[in-house]
UniProtKB/TrEMBL annotation:
This is Substrate-binding domain-containing protein. PROSITE patterns: PROKAR_LIPOPROTEIN. Residues 1-30 form the signal peptide. Keywords: Signal. Residues 50-326 form the Periplasmic binding protein domain. Belongs to the bacterial solute-binding protein 2 family. Pfam families: Peripla_BP_4 (PF13407). It is found in: Cell envelope. It comes from the Bacteria.
Length: 368
């Protein structure tokens, strides 16, 4: 989260054009529920929407904020942007929710920090606000009206399938660099557990990190032996990834496969490996422009790319439509959220795992 790259307007436009192919009929209707004193263009009243991210420095959340800002006028939305001070700041998000209720906004878009904000979300919904989670489905999923997100389980599985095929039957000595060790967050366990499932490793509790058998057989690809050395929290940050990797290497210096919650953590893990004179295959999730460059440079072997700008713009359009009497969005068939898509980015493709290369990934990435 310490990479402070802000996407340019050109980048934002490029992402909208490239990832806007998943359809939602979210154009506004003539019916109007907003205040007559706050009118927008086209004779429709402006709709108040608050976007609440986990922080305002991670390029993933910066892309969300910039995309929503760029699209707000088009939808006659009066957008308020807020965030926690950093990952883990539940109270910052709770305050932003309470402010949205006090403003009588029509809806909230939120990347929920943890279950600690669930009560505040319920309060907003009870007050009549339509609440959409972005990126991180809450636990339970029906805490919000709907979630627009990457299928993080599928993202992790893509990483695991690619890693297993890349190992080509060799033993896997695995470090898992997760998000938290003091909070339960769906994006955290879904990516971690999805990665293990993609490797063909049995998980015990699908909503808990670190309780699978520490040794055994992975069955994906050609299959082979595995050893899980560690589950360490990185807080999704470069310095956290480095310190987490250092702890893992202290337990076992022979680690050859590293899963990371996101790309800043992957960069930190790579720094720790280099300092120790070690090499390992690193897989990650996010697909920001910096992360795609890390794939091109060989730092990350593969990363699952998601589309935060798309989450924010589609979510904002949905709230505007609902506020004007339109239909509510529906979840993707077979899921309890609306899937905004994912693609594996790697320059070392393997049979049986669909992927795009870093050049194509750079065309549709977010951030700088």
């Amino acid at each position: 989260m310490h990479i402070r790259q802000v996407p340019s307007p050109r980048t934002a436009r490029r992402v909208v054009a490239s990832v806007g192919i998943v359809g939602l009929a979210l154009t506004a209707t003539a019916c109007n529920r907003s205040s007559d004193s706050d009118s927008g263009s086209g004779g429709e009243s402006t709709v108040g929407v608050t976007l609440i991210t986990k922080d305002s420095s991670n390029p993933f959340f910066v892309a969300m904020q910039n995309g929503a800002k760029a699209d707000a006028a088009k939808n006659d939305v009066k957008l308020t942007v807020a965030s926690g001070k950093q990952e883990g700041d539940d109270q910052g998000q709770i305050t932003a929710i309470e402010n949205a209720i006090a403003r009588q906004d029509k809806g909230i878009l939120i990347t929920p920090m943890s279950t600690g904000v669930n009560a505040a979300i319920k309060k907003a919904r009870d007050a009549g606000l339509y609440v959409i989670a972005l990126d991180t489905p809450p636990d339970p999923a029906d805490t919000v009206d709907i979630t627009f997100a990457t299928d993080n389980r599928s993202a992790g599985k893509l990483d695991g399938q690619w890693a297993a095929a890349t190992l080509d039957g060799k033993a896997a000595v695995i470090a898992l660099l997760d998000l938290f060790n003091d909070k339960i967050v769906s994006v955290d366990y879904n990516r971690d557990q999805g990665f293990l499932e993609g490797m063909g490793i049995d998980v015990a509790d699908g909503k808990k990190n670190g309780d699978e058998a520490p040794t055994g057989k992975y069955t994906a690809g050609k299959g082979g032996d595995y050893t899980i050395v560690c589950n360490e929290a990185s807080n999704g940050a470069e310095d956290g990834g480095r310190s987490a990797m250092e702890k893992c290497l202290a337990k076992n210096p022979d680690i050859n496969l590293v899963y990371t919650i996101n790309e800043p953590a992957a960069v930190g893990a790579n720094a720790a490996l280099q300092a120790a004179g070690k090499t390992a295959t690193i897989v990650s999730v996010d697909g920001g422009c910096a992360g795609v460059k890390s794939v091109k440079d060989g730092v990350i072997g593969a990363t699952a790319q998601q589309y935060p700008l798309k989450m924010a713009t589609l979510g904002m359009e949905a709230i505007a439509k609902i506020a004007r009497g339109g239909e509510k969005p529906q979840t993707t068939e077979g899921l309890d959220f609306f899937d905004t898509g994912v693609a594996l980015v790697t320059d070392k493709p393997v049979d049986g795992v669909e992927s795009i290369d870093s050049t194509k990934g750079a065309d549709i990435c977010w951030g700088n």
